[in-house]
Request: fold
Amino acid sequence: MRIRTVALLLILFGMFGVLSLTYAQNAPEASEKGKQVYENSCAHCHGTEGRGDGSAAENLLPKPRDFTRGLYKIRSTGTGELPTDQDLFDIITEGMPGSSMPPWDTALSANDRWEVVAYIKTFYDGFKEAETPPKQINLSGKVPYSEQSVETGKALYTELGCVECHGNIGRGDGTSAPDLTDEWGFQSWPANLTQGWNFRGGADTEDIFKRFVGGLAGSAMPAFEGDSFPGFGLTAEESSRMIELDNKDEMTEAEEEESAQLYEKYDAAVDIALNLAEGTELSAEEKQIYDDAMKVVYEKSWHLANYVKSLMPEKRPEPAIGNNVLRSQYIHGELPEMDNAAWETLEARYFPLVGQIVIEPRQFNPTIDAVNVKSYYNDTEVAFLFVWDDRTHTTDETDEETGKTLEDALAVQFPAKVPQGPTAPKPYFLWGGRLPVYLWHWKASAPEQVTELTAKGVNNAEVQEAQGELKAQATYTEGQYKLWVKRALKTEDKKDLQLDPGVFVPIAFSAWDGANGDVDTKRVMTSWYTFVLEPVPSSKRFIYPPVIALLSVGFLFGLRAFVQRRNSEE
Amino acid sequence: MKSYLLATLTVLLACCYIGTVFAADSDAGEMEMLVFPEAYKAMKVGNGGTISGVVKFEGDVPEKKALEITKDKQVCGADEKFDESLVVGEGNALKNTIVYLIDISTGKDFDKDAKVEIDQKGCKFTPHVQIVPVGERLTMLNSDKIMHNVHIFSKINKSVNKAQPKARRKMPLKAVKKAEGPVEVKCDVHGWMSAWISYVPHPYFAVTNEKGEFTLEDVPAGEYKLGYWHEACGTNSKAPVAVTVEAGGTITQNFTLKLK
Reply:
């Protein structure tokens, strides 16, 4: 199955190659066809006049692009430049992960996509007025990935202020994160750099480099182009010396002169860069100064891109199904506490979360990607470690519209009774229905407490009378929650789920990000997954195989003896 | 045949008229903008006149709104900061009002020595309102030694969003080609920071000081429309004041503005 899909994809990509070649770099003239395709496929979100105000736009965040301003986030071009036709074509083809923009590679023919590119450009006059093609970012100086490059990039990440929005280790939890808006005034969360699969324009090192150098036009992400770098026009050593001198409380006369000289060189290079940007022709000498300066900052930018690349796993983890089912591991004696190193030896299982869109209020714009789970059990108890990224730590905020209290939370859901057999019906995935579910509800405002609920529907949940059977610990650091929960396998409470090794138990999750307006049914969640207390391999495995081996050998000897005897009789 | 043509023409004209009326109505935002002459020619002005005056605020002065400093408190929170969208001084003097000539087409050139700068100091833009000549570079200073980003929300020119890392003390920005204003300047890192700039094609723009005063000098003799813009009080673009400037003369034109 997988091979067939890959083959199909290869063929498709091959076709794109051929088709894009035939169109060279430029989309055709805008035509009636493009308008028609646009109105059928794009206008619902982007609006018939391209203002990003289609009928579906209200519920979406990130908002559909407003094409009338010529601001495009995902470009191969520098800051302040328009995208190339190919950029627009690629975005339509590949979609934008982490947003509502789907890939159109199968729904629209390449021909139609080119027609749409041409049509979209008519919404902004700048495309027509542009006298020269947009300047593309030069990717030729790529610095290969290496430990050392990552180290250099890491220092730059702090020095250039990336931490302000993206946080110390890139989880999008910087101190400015909650207040960011785009140019249309809509909330705009900084990327969680550890989740490359949600990057709108892809997470290849080249993609990261282009976003960093060119910025994401219209969003809060600025461009770190050329002369943004302190010490533009200086060598790496000179610029660190300049910064070093800047940070001195007092300078000697010689140092002052040195600083002045560095600044003179720096200012001259900035002037050249601006002249170029304003359209002034550069002399050969100036061109040389500019190229040398750009080489230095681009090298730094590649280091930074390599560092960002190092923050994310190579690919999105596989969801916890099939071979990746959550298996609680048996250990002898006490179960490990939350910060015990024993947890490090387990591989987490990945449960992707999606917005709840069945019941009002809905969540169309989830901010929590997934919950990662590990588990141990012993003869009497089971412990879970739940880990999820959330950019903000919200314990008590009031929703302006509804007056409700917003806070971060997690709910773990099991059926109240384990279904007998794999085909037996499970309760409704959204907090049960006719068949009840048993829930653990944790809230950030009471981190050491987990409440047990029984629910027969999302608006029909009851706090169980008997509480206190669960132990919990939780932390929030660097944009990540860790929640540790421990419970007895068997309890006295008849409303609780009872656990036995080897039995596959349905499990599901709901999570709330208070800062994203999550409350009640406005949340992110999973459907049913499965978990099992991995049965302890029986000690009989040490007895049976040798016995069988012995018996086999004996049988063979017997057979040999029998055959020999029969032969000798003949 | 002729009557057909006439009828069609009438209908077409009517459509055009209705079209323009609707277009003007639908674009109420236009009224918040400054109005620029279609063309401007700089020349030497001898014996020009002066227009000066005071802008005052009328109405209950709202209580000053303290800004919530959410980060970098050592640098940004050294003193209490207030929202600067309405700064009313002694005697109801209204600061940060742009007063300008709407319809001047020839006059003096820009003062080439004037510094076009905005400083980022204590996580506040100073000045709050700045005039930037078209074709000149606005220089952003960073006295804070922390990271800022300069985000200029242009719509006619390309919007700008450029990082100004902590070690970047002075950052000139690319000059723009088209007149536009006012345009908000923000820092996304410190969401409360806000300033307004206007890219202007001629030098007859003034921003009122703490005393609400403004002066436009070297105005060639003639009749002009005098306009104003204030962040919280709006514009008089619909009904600008007519003034007559005499050679070497000085005229006084005061304004009293209310919240829009």
